[in-house]
Fold these 2 entries.
Entry 1:
Amino acid sequence: MAKCDEGYLCDVCGQDVPELTDSDMYLRYVVGMLDPEVLHTTPERHIRCNPVLAQYIVAPDFAPVVVEGPFDKRTLDPAYVAEQEGLVTRGWRRLNEVAKSEIPIIQYPLSEVLNEIARRSAHV
């Protein structure tokens, strides 16, 4: 099978990442953690295969993820945790919205991320 026919395989578990809503790469892109210029070279993984990020999704339709160890959000500064929960949860909700639409990939990110991309582009 040609590489392009395989789809996106998770670099952690090796399984297919069949849905946009399961994509850690696109979640990181939507919240501004991943520059659009490197999407095509960034390894893919399931959101749950990146528990350090997944633990910040707080939504009734997303089963909580618990991380043990130094990156466990329960051991981090509460203000930082609240900020990350807000950002990543909004990003996950946005990912679910764009998965149901036909908007161009460049419009996937949260509005503040799009504004930052535009600002950086204007200064190049």
Entry 2:
Amino acid sequence: MARFDMQSHHEAGLAQGADSADIFFRLGMMYSIGRTVEPDLVAAHKWFNIAAAKGHAVAASYRQEIAAEMSAAQVADAQRAAREWLNLH
């Protein structure tokens, strides 16, 4: 099973370019529908949140849709993960 998660410093550097918001949006889509990974709404929310912070116009609405299907604790976990990722990268 393929996993496209930006953990390494090198991969994070690739995501700093002009298309980074789209890359993060695609990660959100991947986790929300389970394309090549198990569906994970917390991870999807995290990536949509990061994409929205990077200026992706549609990501915020997808994040909102997913949040409606999540518990308050899951949303908090996703928001925490997005903040941690942004602080590290």
